[in-house]
């Protein structure tokens, strides 16, 4: 049982890693952009994790851990911020090759503006629940930066692909929060969350994951363009 979290990390990343070398995907050729993105984003989210763990917002079940920790962080939790983004950014890379149609710009602008407004208001109203507040306000700020400051054009595709990613997300995060296990690997302080769950998953985790992947992609795609790394099998610069 002590290898449970470590194995979840491993199996999340191993298949995307293997297929990174497929000649029609060539994701490994974008590693120059990916690794800075995952390191920068990982450091931000790990510091967030360390602080919330110290506050007792969430914690970890030693039954499912190998017992190696850095500070108050199990090594499995640190690996989470590298394995999950690897799988998700790889999936974005693959689907981006095949999904060519986007929402019209006007519809995307309305949708993004609405989401920013809803997330910001939700975070403000939930100011007595620190995980809910930080997650929703943080995501609103990140989306506003992406849309209005960086003016990225790929948000419609991100919405679609993140919707697809929610399927494996529910499996992985379900296991971590106790679905199909006797106890959760990661527990949450009920006083700091809304209390709505998808099976055993706090609903906030859906938006926490959205922020995690969005920040990775903002950095990754910026560096990918900067370095003019290839996109899949086309051989053409981005």
UniProtKB/TrEMBL annotation:
Q: Where is the Lycopene cyclase domain?
A: 3-95, 128-223
UniProt keyword annotations, A-Z: Carotenoid biosynthesis, Isomerase, Membrane, Transmembrane, Transmembrane helix
Residues spanning the signal sequence:
none
Q: Has UniProt tagged this entry with the keyword Transmembrane?
A: yes
Q: Name the principal localization, coarsely classed.
A: membrane
Positions of transmembrane segments: 6-22, 34-58, 78-95, 107-124, 130-150, 159-181, 206-223
Q: In which pathway does it act?
A: Carotenoid biosynthesis
Membrane-protein topology: Multi-pass membrane protein
The identity of this protein, by name, is: Lycopene cyclase domain-containing protein
- Native source species: Pedobacter panaciterrae
């Amino acid at each position: 049982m002590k290898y449970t979290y470590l194995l979840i990390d491993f199996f999340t990343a191993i298949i995307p890693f293997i297929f990174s070398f497929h000649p029609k995907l060539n994701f490994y050729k974008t590693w120059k952009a990916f690794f800075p993105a995952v390191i920068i984003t990982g450091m931000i989210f790990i510091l967030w994790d360390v602080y919330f763990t110290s506050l007792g917002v969430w914690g970890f079940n030693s039954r499912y851990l190998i017992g190696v920790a850095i500070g108050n962080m199990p090594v499995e939790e640190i690996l989470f911020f590298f394995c999950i983004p690897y799988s998700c950014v790889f999936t974005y890379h693959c689907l981006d090759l095949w999904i060519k149609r986007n929402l019209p710009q006007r519809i995307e602008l309305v949708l993004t503006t609405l989401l920013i407004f809803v997330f910001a208001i939700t975070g403000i109203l939930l100011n007595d629940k620190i995980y809910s507040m930080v997650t929703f306000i943080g995501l609103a700020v990140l989306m506003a930066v992406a849309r209005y400051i960086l003016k990225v054009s790929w948000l419609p595709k991100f919405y679609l692909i993140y919707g697809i990613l929610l399927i494996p997300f529910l499996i992985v995060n379900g296991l971590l929060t106790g679905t199909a296990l006797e106890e959760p690997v990661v527990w949450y302080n009920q006083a700091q969350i809304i209390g709505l769950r998808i099976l055993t998953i706090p609903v906030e985790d859906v938006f926490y994951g959205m922020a995690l992947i969005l920040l990775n992609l903002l950095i990754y795609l910026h560096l990918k363009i900067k370095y003019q790394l290839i996109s899949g099998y086309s051989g053409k610069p981005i």
